[in-house]
Amino acid sequence: MSLQKMVAAHPQVDDETEGLILAARHAMLCSLFCTSCADACVAEGMDMAQCVRTCLDCADICAATARLAVRRTAQNIDVLRSQLETCITACETCAAECEGHDNPHCQLCAKMCRECADDCRKALPDVK
């Protein structure tokens, strides 16, 4: 199933939204990666409280970003741009935190966060 096709089927979509949809898809995945990483951090034998908090904050922001990005009726461009920028900040913050840990789940989470931030950054020009 294609998210791009779903959004393109919307009666008020007449412009190119591929970059924004890619950012939405990546944000959904990033939310899941961050949630999984936070859960794995809880099981680590050391204090990972800051990483857990950072991952869960990022997961929530990414999930909200994905939902806002696919809403095309009566758009609120300022809010969408702000949400994409917030997602970029959350992802970069989470990536930096996770990169400080050697475990595989944090390394994968950091990579996903960097990719999500890049896609959100690329989508900003599409939001007009």
UniProtKB/TrEMBL annotation:
InterPro entries: Csp_YhjQ, YHJQ-like. It comes from the Bacteria. It holds the Pfam family Csp. Gene3D superfamilies: 1.20.1270.360. This is Four-helix bundle copper-binding protein.
